[in-house]
Specification:
Layout lengths: L1 H8 L4 H17 L7 E4 L5 E4 L1 H8 L1 H17 L6 H17 L5 H27 L5 H4 L1 H14 L10 H7 L9 H19 L2 H10 L1 H6 L4 H27 L11 H11 L11 H20 L4 H18 L2 H27 L1
Antiparallel strand pairs: 1-2
Helix pairs in contact: 2-15, 3-15, 4-10, 4-11, 4-13, 4-14, 4-15, 5-6, 5-8, 5-13, 6-13, 9-13, 11-13, 14-15, 15-16
Length: 356
């Protein structure tokens, strides 16, 4: 049991799980019914689950999906992509354009999604080339698309903010009839499982960490750093397209100016809270997803406490600063030293008891 506790204390998940635990305890003390679930009937007449817990899981779906791709980019490239929201606006615009040009059926939705994935991967690969081939720092390289992306989305839709309406799209952004759980939650879970399986049954996860830790050593061991970085950006492109499509289906329109506005900051924070080294190397997909839920849980908590929307970001920033400081290398080093001292004392006590 001592070894298991020691192993968990050194895990990348310890900080996000501890932060999530504190949020849960705080809300249970503040309002014991905060996480209660109720059965309701939505506007489409479907029986669904509702409550703060569902709001947190549903609201964080897009950020959680984006954090998966951002984790791989951060690990391999030692930096972050700040253009994910602009990329989602482009992907969403392509998605809407295809749907509006055709009768909305399941095959058309699949075609629209595949096309917006292709466009999103293309733009992400452009970012990846700047980072992997031309050695430009990721945040600077992606600043180009960050600045121009929403203008491109504006051009795709001819300056309009078209709406789309279909029961199929409502099911994607809301609830599938007969299933009480929001569809975005299901999509996020499936997406996480697929990426986890890819990393488990291929060497991509290992190679990503090796490139992030020491690119030169990776190259000497036969790993192509350029390809690994481009792959990370392409996976992020799929994440961006998925998040963009979910958001469009949820709100029923594409607004290039406001779609997932400022979400890149939440995504980067989710990755940081999740235990991934922002300087590259070790990463945790599950930690990043938990980080996304922590941010959303914090937001829902603040609204439940009647905090004005204009002040929510300030409170979030304060709490997140504390979490990030706790997970910083300096604090971790002190925590490890304290843990080692405590376990050494425990071992010495057990030895002395056996000797007596």
């Amino acid at each position: 049991m001592g070894n298991g506790l020691k192993k968990f204390a050194g895990s990348q998940l310890v900080i996000p799980l501890f932060a999530l635990f504190l949020l849960i305890v705080f809300n249970l003390i503040r309002d014991v019914e905060f996480f209660s679930l109720t059965i309701a009937t939505n506007n489409q007449g479907n029986t669904v689950l509702s409550g703060n817990l569902i709001s947190i899981l549903n609201g964080a779906s897009a950020v959680a999906i984006l954090s998966i791709g951002m984790t791989l980019v951060t690990s391999s490239c030692k930096g972050q992509d700040i253009s994910v929201a602009a990329g989602a606006a482009i992907a969403g615009s392509v998605f809407v354009s295809v749907l509006r040009a055709n009768e909305i059926t399941i095959p058309v939705i699949i075609l629209a999604f595949l096309l917006c994935c292709a466009v999103s991967i293309l733009f992400s690969t452009f970012n990846g080339v700047l980072v992997a081939v031309f050695k430009i720092q990721p945040m600077i390289a992606t600043l180009i698309l960050f600045s121009a992306g929403r203008s491109i989305a504006y051009w795709i839709n001819g300056g309009a903010t078209p709406t789309i309406s279909s029961p199929l799209l409502v099911s994607i952004g809301g609830f599938i009839p007969g299933i009480p759980i929001p569809t975005p939650i299901i999509i996020m879970v499936i997406f996480l499982i697929l990426i986890s399986l890819v990393l488990r049954f291929t060497n991509l996860g290992l190679y990503t960490q090796v490139v992030g830790i020491n690119e030169g050593t990776a190259h000497l061991n036969g790993i192509n750093p350029v390809w690994i970085k481009l792959t990370a950006f392409m996976i992020l492109g799929v994440c961006v397209a998925t998040a963009g499509c979910i958001t469009v289906c949820r709100i029923g329109l594409i607004n290039h100016e406001t779609l997932l506005l400022d979400v890149e900051m939440d995504v980067i924070l989710a990755v940081a809270i999740g235990g991934t080294a922002l300087s590259g190397g070790k990463f945790s997909l599950f930690g990043s997803v938990i980080g996304a839920y922590i941010i959303q849980a914090l937001t829902v908590t603040l609204y439940a406490m009647k905090v004005p929307s204009s002040a929510v970001k300030a409170y979030k920033a304060l709490v997140i600063i504390i979490i990030v400081l706790i997970s910083s290398p300096v604090v971790k080093e002190h925590a490890i030293n304290l843990r080692n001292k405590l376990f050494k004392k425990q071992v010495k006590t057990e030895i002395s008891m056996k000797a007596s």
